[in-house]
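User: Quick sanity check before I run a bigger batch. Here is a single chain. Can you write out its predicted 3D structure?
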Amino acid sequence: MNAIARRTRVLAACAAVALLTTVLPPATEAQDLENWQRDELRGLLDAINAAMEGEIVPDTDPFELRPDFLKGTDGNAYVPFTLSIDPAKVDSPMVSMYLFVAEPGDENAIFEDAYFASVTPSGDDLIRISRAFTAPGGAYDVYVAIQQSMGEESDEDERGPVMLLRQRVDVPDLWDGRLQLSTIILPEVVEPLAAPLTPDEQILSPYSLGATRIIPKFDEEFAKQAELSLIFLVYNPGLADGSKPDITIEYTFHLRASGGEEYFNRTNPQQFNGQTLPPAFDVTLGHQIVAGQTVPLSLFPAGDYRLEIKVTDNTNSSEIIESVMFTVLET
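Assistant: Done. Predicted structure follows.
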């Protein structure tokens, strides 16, 4: 019997990851759960164990997992992710979920946690569940087991089959000293909070940064009356005076067509340096460059676009170019 199979409770996740002032709380301890909840989660872990030992084959695309990558602490990446589930596969208002992250071929988890999540179809009629894990840079097998949770009086047949996903996720090393960016997030909602989220609230809103609540947008289509918003962080900048960066970010829009791309427009570059940042800003104290823009789309003709984002570190001439694809609809 291997190390995973001997586990009979939900293990605590030891690593706490900071994102600005945000921390990822530890996993749910077994003593916090009722017996029926432990039984449900044990069944999910058994399914993951069986998949790791080759006794069962995980489903082919039972749901979609989309990870994003931000810098955490202690050499780790912070990986918020969202599951998109066909509502036809879920009849209950709640599901039980087990997350297990391990290096390929290793039965010991880098990160594991378990949740009971309320489920409600989103605007595109998919069920979305967002959570997060932490891991150093590298390749990992991410296992997610989900089953309907019907409450204390239910039996296994009522809960239906376990949906089991195994997905290889390549986590970038955002601590290697090179100029790097987080995932570029297109937010659906960005709103200030009166105070940073509590650890329990952060579990339910893993994309939030400090005292800013963020809910990502999960498609790239926008009405002409809408705005294109994006947010990302710049990591490992060189220092111009021992504490502040000297970063230029350029945003250039290209219209995509069957014959190729053509330049459409650009916005004013953003500067992050000693003249534009607050006097107290200090990279050596962990302060981070949070970049992004909000662009009205009313003057954009309907069509497909590529936004090119060029980040230049003026202290050493290093640069990164990333692209964001999006579509403007006529109505």
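Residues 220-329 form a domain with the Immunoglobulin-like fold (CATH 2.60.40.10).

User: Great, the batch can go ahead then.
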